[in-house]
């Protein structure tokens, strides 16, 4: 091991862990020195692929955190397994780069945030979308006042006609905690809340469906294979979210449906509107209706996310993404499930400590 490098470990050696490993290897001054996965063979293969010493391969992440001197860890486990390793790492004084969604339950996300505050260590939830040129531009445009007062938005990544993840990580209730709401809904909500500047969520009315996932005949020739027998979560969500200040948000997301698209996310304001992908701004100017497009840069958003994390670690903070914002979003996700199960609008009950 090199003397002055930032030493990182990875917990959960599946698909996304390879993306973390790639950028830890590429970024200067960083060394990937340990890996843990309950599936030991997977951890061993991963270690070989990324040059992690054999002596630092673990089936038990606690053992890794106890026995290897680490500055930071990436938590790349299934959603419901984000909280425990994150909290343990933070309590041991290790910075954490945890994958999205922050957790499968709002209470877990809250505990993770508290652990970060108490330890003074960095907790970054991996929304690489924060570096997306469209999101960065949309935030800047809304903050400039160019749209006037934003009174409505639709939050969606557009939905997938068939795109149910194959890994049990996403489909089994004990590992995932939920389906498309947590997996893609978390992005759609973070994009919208970030662009809007985090108005306080007030209430949610939602419905969810497991419409396609359990059907054997829905596994068609499309490159996405999953086991309908393993499908224990939802594949569709529609939600109406009231936000403080009068803006309302509709969330639409799907892993699988009989349609090509749910459309793009967009924002409507009193002076202008904005569609996210592709980014267009609609205004009245010079007595005409104008449509503006922007020449946006090409950005490797995963690289930017990992770089921002490592820079924060080397400076000792703050987190490039304020975890408090993500805990608030986690309460919206929770209210979606609650509303869907009760069949009525529910309040988003944010703990007082989250209200800045
Ligand atoms: N930011 C992104 O673009 C992105 C992309 C894909 C996945 N993700 C997120 O990353 C997480 C993992 O997704 P994935 O696609 O890599 O899943 P995966 O199924 O490929 O990998 C998960 C790994 O975690 C391991 N694991 C489970 N429980 C564990 C435990 N207690 N200790 C150690 N290891 C454990 C599994 O054995 C598996 O190897 C999910 O939360 C997902 O939402 C993010």
List keywords for this structure.
single chain; alpha/beta; 6-stranded parallel β-sheet; Rossmann fold; 356 residues; Dihydrodipicolinate Reductase, domain 2; binds nicotinamide-adenine-dinucleotide; 9-stranded mixed β-sheet; 15 strands; 2 domains
Please state the overall shape, judged from the principal axes of the Cα atoms: globular
Strands across the major sheet, in which order?
14-13-12-11-7-10-9-8-15
SSE ordering? EHEHEHEHEHEHEHHHHEEEEEEEHHE
Computed CA radius of gyration, to the nearest angstrom: 21 Å
Number of separate helices:
12
Provide the CATH top-level class of the largest domain: Alpha Beta
Helical proportion?
Answer: 25-40%
Number of strands: 15
Q: What portion of residues belong to β-strands?
A: 15-25%
Low-confidence stretches: none
CATH superfamily of the largest domain: Dihydrodipicolinate Reductase, domain 2
Oligomer: single chain
Q: Look at the structure and give the mean pLDDT.
A: 97
CATH hierarchy: architecture of the largest domain:
2-Layer Sandwich
Main sheet makeup: 9 strands, mixed
Q: Give the distance, in angstroms, between the N- and C-terminal Cα atoms.
A: 42 Å
Name the hetero compounds present: nicotinamide-adenine-dinucleotide
Number of domains: 2
From the 3D structure, determine the CATH topology of the largest domain: Dihydrodipicolinate Reductase, domain 2
């Amino acid at each position: 091991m090199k003397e002055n490098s930032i030493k990182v470990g990875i917990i959960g050696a599946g698909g996304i862990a390879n993306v973390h490993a790639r950028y830890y290897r590429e970024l200067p001054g960083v060394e990937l020195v340990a890996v843990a996965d309950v599936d030991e063979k997977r951890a061993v293969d991963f270690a070989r692929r990324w040059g992690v010493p054999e002596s630092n391969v673990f089936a038990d992440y606690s053992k890794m955190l106890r026995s290897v001197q680490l500055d930071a860890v990436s938590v790349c486990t299934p959603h419901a397994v984000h909280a425990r390793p994150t909290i343990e790492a933070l309590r041991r004084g290790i910075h954490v780069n945890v994958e999205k969604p922050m957790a499968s339950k709002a209470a877990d996300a809250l505990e993770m945030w508290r652990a970060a505050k108490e330890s003074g260590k960095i907790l970054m939830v991996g929304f690489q979308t924060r570096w997306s040129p469209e999101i960065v531009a949309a935030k800047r445009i809304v903050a400039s006042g160019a749209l006037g007062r934003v009174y409505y938005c639709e939050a969606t990544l557009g939905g997938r006609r068939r795109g149910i993840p194959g890994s049990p990580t996403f489909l089994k209730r004990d590992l995932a905690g939920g389906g498309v709401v947590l997996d893609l809904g978390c992005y759609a909500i973070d994009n919208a809340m970030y662009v809007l500047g985090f108005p306080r969520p007030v209430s949610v009315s939602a419905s969810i469906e497991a419409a396609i996932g359990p059907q054997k005949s829905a596994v068609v020739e499309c490159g996405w294979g999953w086991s309908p027998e393993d499908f224990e979560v939802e594949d569709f969500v529609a939600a109406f979210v009231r936000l403080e200040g009068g803006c309302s948000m509709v969330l639409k997301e799907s892993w699988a449906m009989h349609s090509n698209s749910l459309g793009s996310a967009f924002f409507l304001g009193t002076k202008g509107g904005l569609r996210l992908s592709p980014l267009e701004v609609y205004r009245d100017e010079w007595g005409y209706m104008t449509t503006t497009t922007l020449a946006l840069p090409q950005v490797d958003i995963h690289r930017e996310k990992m770089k921002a994390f490592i820079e924060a670690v080397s400076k000792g903070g703050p987190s490039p993404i304020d975890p408090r914002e993500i805990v608030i979003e986690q309460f919206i996700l929770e209210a979606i499930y609650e509303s869907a199960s009760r069949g009525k609008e529910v309040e988003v009950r944010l703990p007082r400590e989250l209200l800045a």
